[in-house]
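sanity check this chain:
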Amino acid sequence: MLLLNPARTSGAKIQRYPTLHTASKTDRILIVAPHIDDESIGAGGYAIDAIANGADVYVVFLTAGDCNRFAARLMFKTLEPTASDFLGVGNARIREAGQAMHLLGIPRDHYFVLGYPDRGLRTMVDNPGAIIRSTATRENSVPYADAVTPRADYNYDSLIRDLMKVMTIVKPTTVIAPVPFDHHSDHSAAAEITDAALHELDLHPSRLGYLVHTAISRIHTAFMKTPRRAILPPARMKRYSWATYGLSTAVQQTKAEVLLTYKSQRPYVFLLRNAFVRQNELFYLYPARQDAGPGIPIGEP
């Protein structure tokens, strides 16, 4: 159960939002990440404090982030990466995920790689009967040996089945996933996929959503570290139901170190650190009542 109290974070703009309490030792938290690093971008600080407070934190990576052309070019020193190069990026990111989880304090049996196609989640949701092919790796099934179901078809049913398998293991009291109004297609699709898996299992955990990509993303202008600044919702979304979670200096430092383990994402990873290592993390609060429908922003004009 999520507990809220009046905001104590400095700054008049952020004081309008309630703050989240740290998770307790009875909580089981599942963070859904469309790509490897989203877990730390959106909820790394919350996870650090939750673990320190005795809660169980789990992470499920829906993809291996294997469609990053810039990363493939840098890693393999070529302007035209091959399918094999993109698979190399995916394997590198899975290894980096292990390092990041270790830094966060998440044991190996508490994180899961599903390995579905990066930049392919929306296609899977919109074409549930089709087996799709990755535009990067050219695979049409999960190619990673460390995945929950290696060689599962790249289709909607396989993905939902794997996510349900993870949720059955975790039995989450809180699920933290992307918001359905994130502008990245994988993120908005991940929100729908999470809703669908919870519905199939008839699970009703507390829900928090994190927003990474907006129409004018804060990432691309984050040229300087600004740890004393707050993360606030875009102006057009300020009437939605948000909550904030304050980060101590020590937690900010750990979150920054975790993000910088994703070396395959350099130099982009420095922009991520600057944009998301701030005095707080921001979460969308889903409706508590079951008839509100999935992903409906509270207070949307």
